[in-house]
Amino acid sequence: MSKSAFARVCVASAIVIVGLATSLSASHSWGNYHWARTANPFTLVVGDNVSAAWDGHLGVALSDWSSSSVLNLTKVAGTAKPRTCKPTAGRIEVCNATYGNNGWLGIAQIWITGGVHITQGVTKLNDTYFNTPTYNTGPWRQLVVCQEVGHDFGLDHQDEDFDNANMQTCMDYTSDPSTNQHPNNHDYAQLETMYAHLDSTTTVGSLALPSSMPPAMGQLPLDERTQWGQLVKQSANGRREIYELDFGGGNKVVTHVFWADPDADARRGNNR
Questions:
Q1: Which of 1, 98, 175, 207 could form a disulfide with 7 if both were Cys (CB 3.0 to 4.6 A apart)?
Q2: Contact criterion met (CB below 8 Å) for 87 and 120
Q3: Where do the structural domains in the chain lie, given as residue ranges?
C-alpha cells in the first residue's frame, strides 16, 4: 500500500513516552483532556454500536477500564449508525464498519469545550482492515478497542516505539499485540492523577452540548484525514498522528490516528 494511499493503518490514540511504572509517576495524559465531573468515581456511558465480532472485545475493554478507582464504564445500546458513528452528548459511542481503504485501522475522537473538558467521544474500528488475515485476530482486536476507548477519556500512550519490548498495556504501540491487550497499573495511576481534582460542573451524562460550542462542531463529518484539521503531533516514524480542528474559544475536535505497518502483510507472507 503506497504512502499516498495511506500505506499506514491507524488506531486512534496518543501518549507521552514513560519509564517503568514502578519508578516513575504516571505521565501519559492526552493534552490534559478529561471529562468534567463533580464527584469520583464517576460513571461514563458507552454506546455499543458494534457487531458480534467486536462485542466480546468491547465488553472486556470496558470491564478492564472499570477497574480504575475513579472511573466506571457502563455499556448500553448505541444510538449511532455504525457507518457515520455520530457522537452523543455526555457519552462515548463505539462503532465498527468497513470504512474503506483509507489507511486507518481505528480512530479516537473527542469534542473539547473550555479548552480541556471532553463533552462527547467516539471510537471507530475499520473492518476493511480487520477483515484481513493480518488484523483479524483476537489480540489485534482487543488491543485496538482497549486503546481507542482509553483515548476517549483522556489517556495517551505509554510508549510509541514499535520496536521496544511490550509494556503489557494496550496503551503501548507494538507490532505484536500478544501481551498488550489490557491496561496496566501505570494506566490506572495516570487516571487517578488526571481525575484527582473535581470540577464545578459536569459533562458526564449531559443531555445537551454546552451552549458555547459552535453548532457546526457537532455537525461536520470527520471520517477522513482532510476533515480532521491541522496535524499537531506525529511520531518519529509517522505511524501516530494527532489532528485538531479548532473552532476557537477553547472549542475543538481532536482526532488521534495510529497508522499500521505498511509492510505487515509482506512480513506475514515471508514468515509462513
A1: 1
A2: yes
A3: 32-270
